[in-house]
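batch job 7 of whatever, protein = Zn-dependent hydrolase
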Amino acid sequence: MADAGLDLAGAMFAALRQASLDPPGVSRASYGAGERAAHAIARAEAERLGLEIRTDPVGTLFMTLPGADRGLKPLLIGSHLDAVSHGGNFDGAAGVVMGLALAARLRAAGRVLPRDLTVLGIRAEEMVWFPMLYLGSRAAFGLLPPEAPDVLRRTDSQRTLAEHMTEEGFDPGFIRAGSASLDPARIHAFLEPHIEQGPVLVAEGVPAAVVTGIRGSIRYRACTATGAWAHAGAVPRDRRRDAVLAVADLAMTLERFWRKAEAAGRDLVLTMGECFTDPAMQGVTKVPGKVTFTLDIRSEDAAMLEEAEALLGREAARIAAERGVAIAYGEKLPVPPAVMDAGLRAALLRGAERAGVPVRQMASGAGHDALTFAGLGVPTAMLFIRNDHGSHNPAEAMELADFAAALDVLEAAIGEIAA
């Protein structure tokens, strides 16, 4: 028996890959040719389904399946359609495709929801193109600084956001004026299906997951450990101010803190993503006097982030006293965690039970447009789809069977969610 939703999904994923192929993966630059092609493909499918279609001044694509009462707040579902350079075909796009696949199934079954279902194709989520978190969703809500169009430059072209928006037929003046096309008070709920970007679902053999929350983060991008350069053969251990050993000491302390949090069942991930000495200063016969490094601390528990930050302060003082090395973390870049709506999560879990699909609950370590919606008080939920080999790389491997399982969960829950 034909499945209107899966037929649409298979055709869309093939069309998206073909339109944005950039071997060895795909590239869909924000406000660029690949993103433009993806939006055109989504629009064409929406037209074929007979959905109501409009595009706002910043390029957000709204594709609406009318509900029984057009006066009720609409239920929104979707994600972004840009992708990193030479990335995979499913990150972001799977959420838009699933929204349209759900609309196709509802149409085919003759089901009319109590309220409108609007599928969103959001612009510019991937920060690799413009240095602004969730640029597209924040622009639609009127949250960007007014100077953003003129100061943000795309990393590949070095041209401004305003130039790229104008080239694509959109209006940077909308952002400058602080205008908005989305109003949190006029949204019933927001659902964002998305591939899982880690190995958890593959390792556990589960096709889908209900997301409990999106991890907030504290990032330090310019940390330094400053000791003293010295002769490697002439200075004994207790007279050294070795910056490498100081950073290693800090790293091991942070890992012990992480293990303790895990043992207590608390959510935490810690990463020292960059760590290096200055090659112009360093040599094999020199005690390293300075190390620069980064820190990325994430948790869906705000209290956990506060505890980690306090630990950093204590460790800097201890290391200075014990090793004579000054630790400076530099500017803090905080992003608050976003807890997913308990009622929506419960509805999705009941939908999974009705559909006979095994799911687990888990936090999202990566950020998503859902964080923008949740941060504004919109009831928000995410549904993860199993995906092998991570994301932001050409090897993304979401199976259509897992997409179908997640779609079954969503279809089984949508009546309750829309009620």
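notes: The mean pLDDT is 97.
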